[in-house]
Automatic annotation (TrEMBL):
PROSITE patterns from the UniProt entry: THUMP
Catalytic activity: [ThiI sulfur-carrier protein]-S-sulfanyl-L-cysteine + a uridine in tRNA + 2 reduced [2Fe-2S]-[ferredoxin] + ATP + H(+) = [ThiI sulfur-carrier protein]-L-cysteine + a 4-thiouridine in tRNA + 2 oxidized [2Fe-2S]-[ferredoxin] + AMP + diphosphate; [ThiS sulfur-carrier protein]-C-terminal Gly-Gly-AMP + S-sulfanyl-L-cysteinyl-[cysteine desulfurase] + AH2 = [ThiS sulfur-carrier protein]-C-terminal-Gly-aminoethanethioate + L-cysteinyl-[cysteine desulfurase] + A + AMP + 2 H(+)
Keywords: ATP-binding, Cytoplasm, Nucleotide-binding, RNA-binding, Thiamine biosynthesis, Transferase, tRNA-binding
Pfam family, any one: ThiI
Family: Belongs to the ThiI family.
Residues the entry annotates as binding ATP: 183-184, 208-209, 265, 287, 296
Enzyme Commission (EC) number: 2.8.1.4
Domain THUMP: from-to ranges: 60-165
GO molecular function, one term: CCA tRNA nucleotidyltransferase activity
GO cellular component: cytosol
Protein name: Probable tRNA sulfurtransferase
Subcellular locations according to the entry: Cytoplasm
Length: 400
């Protein structure tokens, strides 16, 4: 007898009725997606759980893949047996003997969810516990603080015996909260912000501003790679690459140097808003963190934010840089982010950016400019790539 199933538990129990059903369906679909490479596996929904049938696949690899899937609260390896006391006893004993660490104390927690089963939970605890004690040495029962808790769940069609719990990624299944347009630079912060958004169940599209020939192909590839890393957490990502050279050159020539950063950000937001509107996206997201740099003071955010009515989600706003770095390492984007390619912002920006730009000043400087044709051209010439979670390859729209 060996582990033949994984029980998947999901949190957020406040979800009720229709939402709950959608949530469960999406989670089941995302799990199937994440486990695509395991051909024998079946993923079923039953009694408020999702059950992964291993059919001979190695559980270690499957658990690892499941730990990236948002919406999963916890996982347990399980042995599925018939509703038969002898089989339950053997499975419980097996779990105890095969536990990774030696077990000194244990407890049986039986639950008779299927009431017509003739033995009640108390008696089940008693019978199964007794059998384990009789077949082991130096092991005792401790109901308050057991070294190993073996749960026995009797359902109508089968009994699941589990021990130990792996934590899941938490959050909500990607695809249950709409779509967000992530402003993705090549830096450390924005991919982490993308991860946080995915965690709350939104799908991502990403937008990146680049300035060829000042930024090169490798800088572009870096952003593609970052978007690819994010597909691991849920779904394919549409990446919009916006040519930004003309706008930057124009601002560089026509705007006062200490206001260029502010005006450039306002342009980025205006373009992002248009791309969001074209794609049915209701919110933007950035990797900004309060006070981190000149463009991220409240004065700056206030003046930059003025140009759009879309909500801007800033998942990192209260985080310290070190916390962000730790998370970037955990999600494996850090190594890519620190590759030293030039970013469009760093190339043109003068060192004397204002930390307290005011809205009226920004409006005044923009009144001397003719920005609309620049905005239109940037949007028109935006290149869109489709980055698929399935193959982790860039595919054309038709295949997507
Ligand atoms: P990051 O580490 O994400 O690059 P940062 O600390 O370098 O952030 P800024 O350069 O001030 O901060 O950028 C703030 C946010 O603006 C970024 O997190 C990102 O969301 C967005 N952003 C900056 N540059 C670009 C770009 N070239 N394309 C798209 N979005 C950008
Ligand atoms: Mg940056």
């Amino acid at each position: 007898m060996e582990y033949n199933h994984i029980l998947v538990r999901y949190g957020e129990l406040a979800l009720k009725g229709k939402n709950r059903n959608l949530f469960e369906k999406q989670l089941q679909q995302n799990i199937r997606y994440a486990l695509k490479s395991f051909e024998e596996i079946k993923v079923r929904r039953t009694f408020g759980r999702i059950i992964v049938e291993l059919n001979g696949e190695k559980y270690q690899d499957v658990v690892e893949a499941l730990q990236f899937v948002f919406g999963i609260h916890s996982l347990s390896l399980a042995i599925k047996v018939n509703n038969d006391l002898e089989q339950m006893k053997k499975a419980a004993l097996q779990l105890l003997k095969e536990n990774e660490e030696p077990v000194q104390t244990f407890k049986i927690s039986a639950r008779r969810a299927y009431k017509p089963f003739p033995i009640d939970s108390q008696s089940l605890n008693h019978h199964i516990g007794g059998f384990v004690l009789a077949n082991t040495e130096d092991v005792t029962v401790d109901v308050h603080n057991p070294g190993l808790n073996i749960s026995v769940e009797v359902r109508e069609t089968a009994t699941y015996i589990t021990s130990g719990v792996y934590s899941g990624a938490g959050g909500l299944p990607v695809g249950t909260s709409g779509k967000v347009l992530l402003m993705l630079s090549g830096g450390i912060d924005s991919p982490v912000a993308g991860y946080q958004i995915l965690k709350r169940g939104a799908k991502l599209e990403a937008i990146h501003f680049h300035s060829p020939p000042y930024t090169n192909e490798r800088a572009k590839q870096k952003v593609i790679d970052l978007a690819k890393s994010l597909t691991k957490f849920g779904a394919s990502i549409k990446l919009h690459l916006v040519p930004f050279t003309d706008i930057q050159t124009y601002l560089n020539k026509e705007a006062p140097s200490n206001f260029q950063m502010t005006l450039m950000r306002r342009m980025m937001l205006r373009i992002s808003e248009r791309i969001a509107n074209q794609n049915g996206i209701l919110a933007l997201a950035t990797g900004e963190s309060l006070g981190q740099v000149a463009s991220q003071t409240l004065h700056s955010m206030n003046t930059i934010n003025e140009v759009t009515n879309l909500p801007i989600i800033r998942p990192l706003v209260t985080m310290d840089k070190l916390e962000v770095i730790a998370l970037a390492k955990k999600i494996n984007t850090y190594e890519t982010s620190i590759l030293p390619f030039e970013d469009c912002c760093t190339i043109f920006l003068p060192a004397d950016s204002k930390t307290r730009p005011r809205r009226d000043q920004a409006q005044k400087f923009e009144s001397f400019l003719e920005i609309e044709p620049y905005l239109q051209r940037a949007v028109e010439n935006t290149e869109t790539l489709f980055i698929s979670a399935k193959s982790n390859q860039i595919e054309s729209e038709e295949l997507f």
